[in-house]
Amino acid sequence: MTEEGVNAPAPVGAGGPAPTVGRLPEHRVRRALLDLLAEVGTVTATVAAERLGYSSGLCSFHLRQLARYGHIEEVPQVGGRARPWRLRQEAAPADPSPTAGYGQLARGLEDESYQRWLTRRDRAPLAWRWDEAFSAVVYLTPEEMGAVAEAVRRTLAPYQDREQRPVARPAGAEPVAFIARLFPLLPDTASEDG
What dihedral angle (degrees, nearest 10) is formed by the CA atoms of 29, 33, 35, 40? Predict the structure, then answer.
């Protein structure tokens, strides 16, 4: 048993305590797992091990630690032995906020990953030392905003299976973060009050 295992909270399960939502000590494997989950959505310990270069046992251990502390959760699934995990899904509040629950954690991980890229890109292979970043303000109806989001999803769809099927990846393919945020620009409340 590892030192971390000795200090771990009791397992969550039938009759076990609720997850301990809180700060889990920083660890490189857990950080890599959270980054991977933010990037791809769901992973099993086996897939995480393949992607991150650790053993599946080590990934499984840290995935369970992250779950015990309330950072991730198992994906409900029917049949099979696979045990996929995802970032914890918060119940939607009556008035959803863009900074609540999963959204806040995902945005923080995206920002952290981007900052890591900026500080390390000079160490990347020459062909990968650039990135695409762009933004635009467009005037849309709610229906048009939904249509734009769906068009982006359709554009990415041909590449989605490469996460679970490494054989589908062309030579030289590497994981690339794609982050799109569509949200209405609300008026500044200070200028409304004045």
Answer: 150
CA nearest to 179, candidates 35, 26, 45: 35
Residue 119 inside a domain? The answer is no
Total number of domains in the chain: 1
Position 57 in a domain: no
Encode pLDDT of 170-191 as tens digits. Answer: 999 988 888 788 888 888 765 5
Number of Cβ atoms within 10 Å of the Cβ of 71 = 22
Ranges under pLDDT 50 in the chain: 1-19, 91-95, 98-99, 192, 194
Residue 151 included in any domain: yes
Phi, then psi, of 87 in degrees rounded to 5:
-60, 145
- Could you tell me the residue range of the domain that residue 152 belongs to? 128-193
Answer whether residue 165 is part of any domain: yes
**Contact status, residue 101 vs residue 89, Cβ threshold 8 Å:** yes
Angle between helices 56-68 and 45-52 (to 10 degrees): 120
Find the length of the chain. Answer: 194
